[in-house]
# Entry
Amino acid sequence: MFALVHLVPGDPVRLALGTRFSQESYDALRERSGLDQPLVEQFFGWAGRALTGDLGVSFRSGETVTSQIAERLPATLTLAFASILVALLIAIPLGTVSALRPRSVIDRVATVISQFGISVPDFWMGIVLILVFAGTLGWLPSGGYVPISEDPGAWFSRLLMPALVTGVVSGSVITRFVRSSVLEALGSDHVRTAQAKGLPTRQVFTWHVLRNALLPLVTVTGVQLAYLLSGVVVVEIVFSWPGLGQLALQAVQARDYPVLQGAILLFALVFLVINLVVDLLYTAIDPRIRR
Amino acid sequence: MGARSGAPRGSEPASAVTAGTAPVLEVEDLRVRLRTPRGPADVVNGLSYTVGPGETVAVVGESGSGKSVSVLALLGLLPARVATVTGRAVLQGEDLLTMKPERLRQVRGPGAGMVFQDPMTSLNPVLTVGRQLVEGIRAHGDVSKEAARSRAADLLGEVGLPDPKGALDRYPHELSGGMRQRVVIAIALSNSPALLIADEATTALDVTVQAQIIDLIENLQADRGTGVIWITHDLGVVAGIADRVLVMYGGRCVEDGTVDDVLERPAHPYTRGLLGALPDLARPAVDGVVPDLATVPGTPPAPTDLPEGCVFWPRCPVRGDARCEHEQPPLVQIQGLDRHFGPSGLPHRAATWCTEPTSDTGLPASGTGSTALGGDR
# Structure
């Protein structure tokens, strides 16, 4: 990962200094950033400091990387959890209904909707939403982020559209999973046993179908959440959402190695942590995994 | 042979049961048609039988003969989108097939309990055994959780689970196949059903466990007077537990009668074929040659494409009548076959044009091929 970042053509020092600079100031800055040292040394230096929580200083702004990430984190967390909420609100009812009536009109409509969600580019959906709700109708602001502590109303109105766009995309993926896992649970023998003992339909459905269909749902939701937490770059740009994705993109453009490395490290950690949480959840909901 | 004491078996006591009390279940002209991608499939075609209290009716036949579907249809457990069920099935005076869904739900459990084939899959893996028992008990009465739990523990003890109290908190995967099947039986019995349907309940179990489960059901049946429908393709099990036998082929009943009549004096060429296909250790080698295991040649007809005449005609080695190919034989009481023992209380019926037990059929004449089964002789 480190090597990949440094392989990107372009010189961060040159970019930082602008068009007119002297060789002295170039060398000075290069030395100060540690870019004059061999790559291997740079890597071990960075990795060692990263272990102590020091991710270095941004070439561009001079702020520490950790403070920059901390600044962007609330926006990303907000959008990710709002999106996953939207996604589940779409996926669970839609997937369940289409599993209950396979090949029915509802099922086909649900398939079309989720195919649409999977295939339509999110930036396009974002632009269309902005044009309609911010432009023509003027109901919602076109973008930006306001912390909930400052103005909950503004926070919500600005969150709505980006959360909807990313939620629809994730929700479409999750819908397919919900449908197939509910279908599978419906067809299993223990559901017939539950019916044969005279349980009310609702109870059969909740405890013998949905309860069992939950297992694959947890996995796919975890994957989607990890993806959302590592910043949805395009949607963040469209809605000028100051999240981690935007930060990472700006760091790439400026060849701001420390920020980019810090962001990537964080994304990797997010995936690890979410996978761990999913595994722990699994042991909680599937007794077969417990020992 | 696990002939049960006190329960009707063989000739004389059988009539007492059917004459004395009303049957638990009366099935009349049951038909099931399934919608399949290859067109409508007639899986069950006019099945009629009764099950008396304390009586065990064995339903036998090859895979695909409609055994399982016919009982699933009784309790409305076939998916309504694909299955059309017609006929009458009166359980304790109420027709199951025209019942309102809520009433049918109430009947599942106290009216009829069901034990399924595969204990590995018929319990919910993510719920404890206790929970699965308790929810069944509480679905049919205002029982507190604690009362239902203690009843569940009693039931598990009754079906022979060691440490029944502890077993309540175990998950199905922590139990062996035989233990799981006991749990399934406990669930089926938890509301003291008038009718117990065992759909290949011992097929997935090994022979010793199978014998235990059969004993268990027989004892429970003797205690409670439950009527039992025992679906199986194992004729050895049939000989051991059944009072009456119903042989299914191509979704039809091709022969029924008391277990002695059907197994000792089979009338239908298919039944004879089935019995002839049993390995027989007592059969002597002829001139040093051990006879091959007999089979019924061919495969059962596809339910989407049943033959016009006798369902068994395409595979029948007899074909002794001109009507075989074109006309469906009715299920009628057969004459002359029961001469050895005189008329039993229950009719012995078969749907075939060729009832004469002749030795030129190429099949073993009645009795000789079934010595392994006919323990009473």
User: Anything to note?
Assistant: The first helix of chain B runs from residue 12 to 20. Confidence is low (pLDDT under 50) at residues 1-20, 338-344, 357-377 of chain B.
